[in-house]
From TrEMBL:
Record's protein name: Ligand-binding sensor domain-containing protein
Pfam families linked: HTH_18, PocR
Domain of life: Bacteria
Sequence ranges assigned to domain HTH araC/xylS-type in this UniProt record: 245-343
InterPro entries (UniProt xref): Homeodomain-like_sf (IPR009057), HTH_AraC (IPR018060), PocR_dom (IPR018771)
Record keyword DNA-binding present: yes
GO molecular function terms noted in the UniProt entry: DNA-binding transcription factor activity; sequence-specific DNA binding
Record key words, sorted: DNA-binding, Transcription, Transcription regulation
Length: 353
């Protein structure tokens, strides 16, 4: 997917989003603004503090604010989680990345507050050289500075995590909704094409509608599972169910092994039947389907990023032989590993042109 498909303007209703942003700012006591993946604001500031309003209007000081925003956003993307830092006036700000399907599509910039405690110490992401003029400007705004909201570090981290999960959930749900609408429109267009041609008595409108609904359901299910499985390919994956974490840690550490469900259940100190139930709830798939699919995702990464042969990748991921690896790869991707690699390389070459 390209960044154009992840344009926040195309994904969510920004007018409704801004109303939610205003409410969040009011409840959290934080100023909030949403930016796209380029750092360009897509909403207005919600409850920007008077001190920061004045600073951002000052031509000599606003450039430091922009540097703080840019560097904070980059650090949040690198960490793949909210980044809490001090601006050039030692005010607390937070960069909260919106990341869908491992793609950075924007960020929530929040903060404009002071900490009640200084533990742990936070990084001042941009330093500003001292000058008499700037000191005088600060003194003129000292009353506004003292009126900034004050929160504990624990309150700040809790709010940051809440905004991170809430924003990513809303955007992900919007993407899934748009995918469903696109599939529905596709089905309607197929039905219209059929309607324009004579049909046999065995191919009625109700039959076509039923098949189209089935196709939508299968395509949507496949899309959602594919998006979810990609999240599991990260080496830093953490299960929402702590009971399952030892199993995932083992699978990621020993990619060349083919461990059974019973062995992993024993590793988690739970019964195989209970392991199976909570595993399906966590991943959306049976273990017997999820495990080979995960290996194929790893195989795709190796095909894209290495020069290893098909046999070497097959051995590295614990397939009994290259033939079975190719068969399994084709079952999930509908093409062979060699064809997948060629197509990927061709796309890369075309992108460079």
């Amino acid at each position: 997917m390209t960044h154009s498909l992840f344009n926040l303007n195309n994904i969510i209703d920004l007018e409704k989003w801004h109303k939610l942003q205003d409410s969040l700012a009011l409840v959290t006591k934080m100023a909030i603004i949403t930016v796209d993946y380029k750092g360009v604001p897509v909403t207005k500031h919600s409850y920007c503090q008077p001190f920061c309003q004045a600073v951002r209007k000052d031509s000599s000081l606003s450039s430091y604010c922009q540097k703080c925003d840019a560097r904070g956003g980059l650090e949040a993307v690198r960490l793949n989680k909210p980044y809490i830092y001090k601006c050039h006036f030692n005010i607390i700000d937070i960069a909260i990345p919106i990341i869908i399907d491992n793609q950075y599509i924007g960020a929530i910039m929040a903060g404009q507050l002071k900490l009640r405690d200084e533990n742990p110490p936070l990084e001042q992401i941009v330093s500003r050289p001292e000058s008499i003029a700037n000191n005088q400007k600060f003194e003129a705004l000292e009353e506004e500075y003292l009126s900034l909201p004050v929160l504990s570090f624990e309150e700040v981290t809790t709010i940051a995590d809440m905004l991170f999960h809430l924003c990513n959930y809303i955007v992900e749900e919007a993407i899934n909704k748009n995918s469903t609408i696109d599939m529905y429109k596709k089905a309607l267009s197929i039905d219209s094409a059929h309607a324009s041609n004579p049909i046999s008595s065995s191919d009625t409108s109700s039959d076509r509608a039923y098949r189209n609904i089935q196709a939508i359901q299968e395509e949507l299910s496949s899309t959602l599972i594919e998006n979810k499985i990609k999240k599991f390919t990260s080496n830093e994956f953490r299960s929402s169910n702590k009971l399952l974490q030892p199993a995932f840690d083992y699978m990621y550490r020993y990619k060349n092994k083919n461990t059974s469900l019973s062995e992993l259940a024993k590793l988690c100190h739970i019964s195989p039947s209970y392991f199976s139930r909570i595993f399906i709830k966590e991943t959306g798939e049976n273990f017997s389907v999820f495990a080979p699919r995960l290996k194929i995702e790893w195989a795709k990464q190796l095909l894209e990023t290495s020069d290893q042969s098909i046999n070497e990748i097959s051995d590295q991921l614990g397939f009994c032989d290259a033939g079975y690896f190719i068969k399994t790869f084709k079952r999930f991707e509908t093409l062979t590993p060699a064809v997948y690699r060629n197509r990927f390389q061709n796309r890369q070459d075309n992108n460079r042109l």
